[in-house]
Amino acid sequence: MQHSSIPEKGSSSRVITEWRPEDPAFWQQQGHAIASRNLWISVPCLLLAFCVWMLFSAVAVNLPKVGFRFTTDQLFMLTALPSVSGALLRVPYSFMVPVFGGRRWTAFSTGILIIPCVWLGFAVQDPTTPFSAFIIISLLCGFAGANFASSMANISFFFPKQKQGGALGLNGGLGNLGVSVMQLIAPLAVSFSIFAAFGGTGAVQPDGTMLYLANAAWIWVPLLALFTLAAWFGMNELATSKASLRAQLPVLKRSHLWIMSFLYLATFGSFIGFSAGFAMLSKTQFPEVQILHFAFFGPLIGALARSAGGAISDRLGGTRVTLVNFVMMAIFSAALFLTLPTGGTGGSFIAFFCVFLMLFLTAGLGSGSTFQMISVIFRKMAMERAQKRGGSENEAMREAATETAAALGFISAIGAIGGFFIPKAFGTSLVLTGSPAGAMKVFLVFYIACVVITWAIYGRKK
Can you tell me where the transmembrane regions are (predicted)? Predict the structure, then answer.
């Protein structure tokens, strides 16, 4: 019977028909190795997705240097649109793994990202490319942001509940690292003629150097192709994770779905929003600083902290870690006011940068701890409902896994809205008052509300 649980070597079928991660013997003998392989293929797929999702944050600022005459407002629109489409697409993506299977969906959702990368590489080389074409490409880059929902849902099926925080933290945290990787690699890639054989031409700059802007998009294409194949041939699908869309929709009726969405918006929403807006905000407050030399540090720390947040929550409890984390986010938000210049004078970039690094750190830790809470809460509720109906333990565990995966994906969709809301709030505050302080006051109140909600709903219950 044991052999039926694992696809045979060389078999064209990669569907596992028997999966019992909560069984210690099964996990030790078979489950751990399979789950780990799927996790370590999922991680680079998700990292590349984040690279593509944030691509316009590196490309848009360089478009005027290669002959485009778009307005500043149009350029900001191009950087914001991937966050909008990514957040919206995370909703359907959160339900796709149980319908199509994790292996197939991971390969498909990674492979289609080649389309906007190739298209963008050609578009930036032709200054007559209309703004409408860039709008479409930026929206297509949003598909990359949606991958997070399906990726996290898929990995949740493979691991037992006591290890989900660490596994989801690694998948999400190292995946989030793509933001920092892109901000580090893209500026280097555009300095060299890498794809001349494929039509990659550069634009001469005033200082005599060449800018190969197409490379910022094309550099990811070979890697996307490689890991699409890795997902197709190296990952598995779990027959026990199969579920219709109708079977997953009841999760939308759970009040905890909306409460945890609010908390996750404060953590991951802050991470992705600060990642998108930090460089722009720094430039407005400290124009003398070459912020592009430092911009990748914040997302790097936040991404690594997410992995740690999941693992710490497995040990200490997600609610406890999340509660302390929100207190720290509120404190650092308040401290940020002390670092800003007043009337164009004063302020300290070093203090400003250090406080923001702590905000990235706490946003990352909180992203991992809130996801651990989601796994625990929704598994517990589903198990209790199944037991009340008199269902078997296997039925209860399957329902719990399906509902948890759907919740993880849907909540991640809400969190992604922060990628649009936070930069927009900074911009609006600067236009109305000349300072980002107004936006930071809103964020401070938001974090304090999260402290109260976390303690009142989850912290007081044993």
Answer: 39-63, 75-93, 105-125, 131-153, 174-198, 210-235, 256-279, 291-309, 321-343, 349-379, 400-422, 442-458
DSSP string computed for 246-313: HHHGGGGG-HHHHHHHHHHHHHHHHHHHHHHHHHHHHHHH-TTS-GGGTTTHHHHHHHHHHHHHHHHH
Dist CA 91 CA 169 (whole Å): 20
The pair of three-digit structure tokens given for residue 28, joined into one six-digit string = 């030790």
Q: Is the dihedral of CA 299, 96, 392, 34 positive or negative?
A: negative
pLDDT of residue 40: 95
Distance CA 155, CA 169 (A): 10
- The position carrying tokens 């998108």 is 276
* Sequence-distant (≥ 6) Cβ neighbours of residue 98 within 8 angstroms: 153, 241, 242, 243, 244, 247, 248, 402, 405, 406
Question: Rounded CA gap, 276 and 402, in Å?
Answer: 32
pLDDT along the chain (462 residues), means of 10: 42 74 89 93 96 88 87 78 88 85 95 97 93 95 92 88 80 87 87 74 77 92 97 90 68 85 92 82 81 80 86 87 95 93 82 94 92 84 78 72 77 83 83 87 95 91 54
Q: Phi/psi at 15 (nearest 5 deg)?
A: -95, 125
The pLDDT of residue 292:
67
Domains of the chain, first to last: 16-242 (1.20.1250.20), 243-461 (1.20.1250.20)
Place of tokens 């000349």: 434
